[in-house]
Amino acid sequence: MDSREVSEGKEQGERAKDEIARGRTVFVIKTIQKLASLNVNFVQISGDARFLVPEVETSVPAIFDEAVLVSFLISLRTFDLMHVAAAKHAKLADGRLGAFVTGDTDFIHKKQELSKITGMPVLSPKEYVLAMGLS
Asked: What is the DSSP letter of 74?
């Protein structure tokens, strides 16, 4: 493989990443537009966040807002994004939380990325039991 082919491969990879990012952005905008069209009022103790998208303005719970931001950091299913956002929010609300314990294999496989996002280690139940000296 010569340097031209390597360069072209890198460019294709960057274009693919850009396309994925554009797809996520479109998904987020369409979701916000759909939420706004439902005229739903959310009541959230942790507060609301305002979404300002061209021609759309709506309020959503702060955890939804955090889930949208997390979606740009890691690829997860929608409810998994909410789970991570809730864990991150909980850690911010109570700095004493020591770990995010989960049996979800997708989370366990992405534990390093998720630890950075949530601000705490991501552990399987078995790892938590061992870490706490409970076995």
From this structure: S
Question: How far is it, in rounded angstroms, from Cα 57 to Cα 104?
Answer: 34
Residues in the chain: 135
Collapsing DSSP to helix, strand or coil, 122 comes out as strand
Residue 44, number of CB atoms within 10 A of its CB = 14
Q: In this structure, what token pair is assigned to residue 135?
A: 């076995």
In a domain, 67, yes or no: no
* pTM check: above 0.90: no
What is the total count of domains within the chain? 2
Same-domain check for residues 57 and 2? yes
Range of the domain at 128: 73-135
**Do 78 and 37 fall within a single domain?**
no
3-state secondary structure of 78: helix
Q: What is the pLDDT of residues 18-45, one digit of tens each?
A: 888 778 777 777 776 776 676 655 545 5
In a domain, 82, yes or no: yes
Which phi and psi angles does 66 have, rounded to 5°?
-65, -40
